[in-house]
Amino acid sequence: MEALNEIMDLILSKMLELEYSNSRLEYIHSQGIIHRDLKPKNIFSDGDSHMKITGFGIACKEAYCDALIDDPGIYRWMALEIINHKSYGQKVDVYSFGLMLWESVTGTIPYKEMNPISSSFCCGEQEFEASDPWKLFTCNESFN
Q1: Which of 26, 27, 55, 113 lies 20 to 30 Å (CA to CA) from residue 44?
Q2: Where is the Protein kinase domain (predicted)?
Q3: Which CATH number does the domain housing residue 109 bear?
Q4: Which secondary-structure segment (H or E) carries 136?
Q5: Do residues 110 and 123 touch, judged by C-beta distance below 8 A?
């Protein structure tokens, strides 16, 4: 029973961390900004369980992002619209946030065995699931 309580505490703390991060992302988007490089290394805790989003070096105002021709950020967390140089908006950050959520819950990134660009195409085109349900309860070192 004690192990179950520890697991539930871990799940709750991860959910709270992600909720704080989500509210920060909502604020960024309310200002018309697309981060374009959301990944676990750009999410930090201030020690009081308050999450901070960092790494705004390639962020852009939504109205001007399509004019940029670069491939910003890390392919592993990048939405296909950016990789394919198609028009995009705030949804690309939501996609990256979803991958971080997946990583936080399962303890691994989707299609880890593939190179980053291939994994992005698989995440964008296929459904995936946790192969080991017990991995759902493991701590992800990226968020520690």
Answers
A1: 113
A2: 1-144
A3: 1.10.510.10
A4: none
A5: yes
User: Using an 8 Å Cβ cutoff, are 93 and 43 in contact?
Assistant: no
Local structure of residue 119 (DSSP, 8 states): H
What is the DSSP code (8-state) at residue 141? Answer: G
C-alpha–C-alpha distance, residues 26 and 51, integer Å: 13
Residue 144 located in a structural domain: no
Q: What is the pLDDT of residue 116?
A: 76
Q: Which domain holds residue 51?
A: 2-139
- Is residue 116 situated within a structural domain? yes
Cite the active site residues.
37
Helix axes 91-106, 2-30, angle to 10 degrees: 170
